[in-house]
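tool=predict chain=A
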Amino acid sequence: MKNLQRIQSYEHLKILSDSRRLTILRLLMSRQATLSQLGEILNEQPSQIRYHLKLLESAGLVELVDTHVVRGFVEKYYRATAHAFTFHELILPAGSDQETVVLVGSHDLALDMLANHLHQQKFGNLDILLLAVGSLEGLIALRQGIAQVASCHLLDAESGEYNLPYIRHLFPDRPVGLVTMAYRQQGLLVAPGNPLGIRSLEDLVRPEVTIINRNRGSGTRLWLDNQLAELGISPENVQGYGREVNTHTAVAEMISAGKADLGLGLQAAARGAGLDFIPLFQERFDLVAPQEQLGNHRLQPFFDYIQSRGFRNLLESLGGYDTLHTGDHLTA
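tool=predict ok
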C-alpha cells in the first residue's frame, strides 16, 4: 500500500502544489539543466526560476550537480535528487494510465484498509496516497489543490454541525461535495483493566494521570480543546498535554507501551491494541472533494467501493463504526 510513509513531509506536498515547481521537477527528473535553460523552456525570468529552484533545493528535491564557466559566467547545472522519485506518483507525465488519489486530512483506520484493498485489487490502475495531517490541514490542502480528497470530522461548536460550516468558509466560491464514510465512536483509550479508574475528562487533571494528545488541527484535538474549555480545565493542568502524535494508532501504541495513561481516540484503535475504551461521543466522518472530482470517472472505483456492502462489512469488523449513513452525499 502506498501511504504516508511514502511521503516524508507535508511541506513537500505544499511545495509541489505550485504547477511551475512541478514542471521544473519533471524536467530535472528527465535531465539536468541550468537556470537559463529552464527559463527558456518555461518562458520565465531567471529570477523567478531561481526562486522556485531554491525552494525545491531546500526541500531536498533538486541538487546542484555541476558547474561550467562559459564566457566568464558560471553556469550551474541542477537535477532531481533520488529523494524526488519518492514523489513519482504525483509527477507522472500527462497521458499516464496511473491514477493516484491524494487523500489528505484526518487519520482513520478504515481509510488505511480501504487504500490497501484498492491497491491489491488494482481497480482501474487506481492508487491512494494517504497523509494524516489533521482535518483542518486536510481542507486547506484541498483548497490549495494539493489533494483531490480530504477527510475530516470538524465539529462547529456554535451550530453543532460537522464539517459543513468549515467547508462553506473555506470554499465560498466552489461547489464542494461530501460523502459520509461513517459515524465513528470516540472516547478515552486506557490500559487494559483501567488500572487508574479513569471515568471522564475530569480525570485528566489528576496529577498521576498522563495524556498523549493528538496534533493541533486534528478534529479530535479541536474537540478536546473545546470540551476542556467548557469544563474550565486549563491544558496547563493536564500532564502531557503538549505531547502530540498524528494518528489514532500512535495514541494506542503510546498507551500500550506504558508511555501514557490515556488518550482520546477511536474505539477501533483501542480494540486493535487490546486496550480498554471509555466512550464519550459519536461523530460524522466525511470525505470531501470538489464536485469535479466526485464526477471524475477515473476516481469512480474509490467512491463506488465506499457504497459497497464489502466496505460496510470492513467498517463493522473494526468496531465503533456506524454504517447506517455510509455513502450518503451532502452538498456544502
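The first helix runs from residue 10 to 16. The first strand starts at residue 33 and ends at 34.
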